[in-house]
Amino acid sequence: MKLLLINPYLGQVSKNTEGATHSPPLGLGFIATYVRDRTDCDVRIIDPIPQGLTMQQILDEVMTADFVGLSVYTDTRFYCFDLAKKVREINPKCILIIGGVHAFFLSELILEHYPFIDLVVRGEGEETVMEIVQGRPYENIAGITWKNTEGKIIRNPDRPLIKNIDPLYIDYELLPDMSMYKTDIDAPIGLKRLKTAYMIESRGCPFRCTFCANQHWKGHWRTVSPANTVEKMSHLVEKYGIEYFRFYDDLFTANKKRVFEFCEALKRKKLDIKFRVLVRGDTQREVLKMLKEVGCESVGIGIESGSDKILKRIRKGVTRQQLTDTIKMCQEVGLWVVGSLIVSLPDESKEDFKETLSLVPLPDTIISYIFHINPGTTFYEELRERGEINDHVWFDRNRYEGLIIYCKENFPSAPLKLQKAIWLARYRRYYFFIHRPLRTIKQYGLFTGLLVLIFTVTDILFKGRLYDIAYKYRSIYRKFTMKK
Fold first, then answer.
1. pLDDT tens digits for 11-31?
2. CA pair distance 308, 321, nearest whole angstrom
3. DSSP labels for 9-26?
4. Nearest of 193, 111, 192 to residue 151 by alpha carbon
């Protein structure tokens, strides 16, 4: 038997997703490793863009697969469904599986709109996919939505979360080579040059921000033991010569005791490595110092807004003062701070935007996003109750080809029109570049940093037209150079 797991992202990132990057499909890595270790199934992961695969090469692999699994997210959903249709045409006998966080909330509608898909995996996929591969009757598999022989769509009960995630791991031999992916683009130029690996050592988040797509965790937060995490890092250092680790955990520092144990385990191993983690805006100085002492060089902080009113509105659980204090503490202990901001948040006024803008010069670099709506989030449900959205718009590619942007054109309650939101997201980064030119040079290097600064000033003078022209020609270039 052959299981083929595919990251179906086949296009380029939209210009509306400021700061978006293509990272390795770690979720597929966990599933592939779990199934391979517990069955006699031949498992392979495909990530077409970094591997440089053509559509025909993907379909050649599909032709020999017994099971094909695709990950679906809001921004890549139509890539996923288009590829799923091709999979069904080229291999009508395979079991075609869709999974991913956004499929959790819309599984019945996915099967309704795309009848060529056999089933949807909801929640954690390791045990569920294993049972599918082993041939267990669908009615006995928790966490799937499927169609019976009469064509009726059935949603089985949710699968309980895996309590102990210590045994779960990724065999990086199953993933595309890490060198095929971009290094940490938000880090200083020195860290970008290091050989990088990507890790996830916890699942879920104890907080419930209204915009966050990970609501299916329902506030549950589980972690790999610190000793186990360090052993994995040591293995990657020894086998692949890894020098820098980028942790994609939603929140690395939720438990002070765990951070302390992790740091102590790193000290005992004496690993000569650097790493980046995500922290909250209320992290204690003691925790930051411990991380710095064992190799942490960079931290990400979700600022989102500089307005206490908006922070409360999105249930961020921190205040503006806590955010500014934490950023300053990070820098005082020598950590490079990557701050993320969101434009066009619910009820955001001009005054709120100005308050956020005043925080822009504080971090060492800035990522600025436009607020977009994901199914299952608290704010998605709020919009649905007000009649501004329904589940079917997720499948309307005439209205929403990519992200569902929270803007006036789409939602009456939104504070900004789309082009205004795009410009303000870009302007926040420009504002940072102008106020922190030396930090920009440290991040990009002298030559590229100076080019960024020159481009920034010029584009402001041309009111954003230069960026639009550059993006247009980049799109044309990609269109004619990408293999079909």
1. 643 333 333 346 899 999 999
2. 9
3. --SPPPTTSTT------H
4. 111
Residue owning tokens 């100005």: 354
183-432 CATH choice from 3.40.50.2000, 3.30.360.10, 3.20.20.70, 3.40.190.100: 3.20.20.70
What is the per-residue pLDDT for 471? Answer: 55
Q: Which CATH number fits domain 2-155: 3.40.50.280, 3.40.50.920, 3.40.50.300, 3.40.50.150?
A: 3.40.50.280
Q: Would you state the pLDDT for residue 343?
A: 94
- SS3 of 182-251: the string is CCCCCCCHHHHCCCEEEECCEEECCCCCCCCCCHHHCCCEEECCHHHHHHHHHHHHHHHCCCEEEECCCC
Total-model pTM: 0.91
Average pLDDT, the chain: 90
Question: What is the rounded distance in angstroms from the CA atom of residue 291 to the CA atom of residue 441?
Answer: 25
DSSP structure string for 250-313 = S-S-S-HHHHHHHHHHHHHHT---EEEEEE-TT--HHHHHHHHHTTEEEEEEEEE-S-HHHHHH
**SS3 call for 369:** strand
Report the SS3 class of residue 119. strand
Q: Which amino acid is at 346?
A: P
What pLDDT does 216 receive? Answer: 65
* Domain chopping of the chain, boundaries: 2-155, 183-432, 445-484
CA angle 233, 236, 237 (to 5 degrees): 85
Are 49 and 10 in contact, with CB atoms under 8 Å apart? yes
Within a 10 A sphere around the Cβ of 478, how many other Cβ atoms? 11
pLDDT digits (tens, 9 = 90+) for 77-89: 999 999 999 999 9
Give the position of tokens 């029109």: 417
Q: What is the pLDDT of residues 373-399, one digit of tens each?
A: 998 899 999 999 999 999 988 899 888
**182 touches 19 (CB < 8 A):** no
Alpha-carbon dihedral sign for residues 182, 369, 75, 455? negative
Cα separation, 384 vs 379, whole angstroms? 9
Residue 68: helix, strand or coil by DSSP? strand
